[in-house]
Predict the structure.
Amino acid sequence: MKKIDWDTLTFDITPAEKMFISHNRDGKWDKGSIVSYGTVPVYPSAVVLNYGQGIFEGMKAYRRKDSSIAMFRPFDNAKRLNSGCKRLHMPPLDERFFVESITNLILENKEYVPPYGKGDLYIRPVLFGSGQMLGVQPANEYTFVIFMSPVGPYFKAGFSGVKIEIRDDFHRAPLYGTGNVKAVGNYATSLYPRSLSKDRGYDEVLYLDARNSLYVEEVGAANFFMLKEGVLSTPKLGGSILPGVTRDSVLTIASKVFGLQIQERDIRYDELFSAYELFCTGTATVLTPILTVGYKDKKYKIGDGKPGKTTKEIYDELKGIQLGDREDRFGWVYKVD
Ligand code: PLP
Ligand code: COI
């Protein structure tokens, strides 16, 4: 194993030595195998390359204080992957097979799980149409791969907070499109708007609904939360927003642990300008405070410009549960070893 500097981990790829690969060639998934990390050959006519028939998941393995390894709600990722398979007309995976394949691969890549408090092992399952087609049709063969990489914070600034730009000139997902599943194409279309916002000094884009360009949807790769007048609100799920596992966990923690009033509703973009605290959530982004919101040529500072108290409390509880430092009162922790 190549030496890794655990103190300088970012979200760049440092592939763990082993990956998992399984094929579906005759309507059934084979049992798959663990192989060395490397290329996955596909024909130029593979449906994923031509028509984007592909989906992925994002999960983490956490090193705990006692050095054991755990995952967080992995069956929820299995369910979401399968709902995406249905939407993209791909064969689903048995949930247990999905979780066990990941568990076995983590055990093979154990030394890539960063030490407690230094980062996590990011897990990336990808399922795609590898069969060849010329016309727009579902593939007749599929490939499922899992690779892993030790990671640090998704945004360079980490918990110290980010700047986001509200854009109404690009949308992430239409109402009955694929916004509620992790289709690979959703992310391709976010690259150009993101680059425009980056050039203007922002870390990410905050998208509005495709029908009215009025209501907040989500950040490029994370769900969105707003704290205002004692209420924690998040955009309601309706077909165009990804149902994040972290989003659901934050709603539960906020109401059950901290007794906050929570609302899943339409949030108008201009409500944000006078919010007390804003943050985004995801496996990669965890809970990241949003400290500046831009809209057209205006910039709005949120709260006192520092990560808010409630954001920090919810972050500490979530991370505490994942790292085994706080009681797993909702039964979310899945032990790996
Ligand atoms: N929204 C989008 C578009 C994402 O890509 C992600 C990441 O998976 C999330 C939200 C957060 O989802 P989760 O909390 O399940 O990681
Ligand atoms: C995750 O949070 O795991 C994601 O999948 C987001 C990703 C696009 C980096």
Summary: Residues 61 and 106 are 8 Å apart (CA to CA). Residues 58, 187, 221, 282-284 surround 2-OXO-4-methylpentanoic acid (ligand 2) (CB under 6 Å). The chain is about 20% helix and 30% strand.
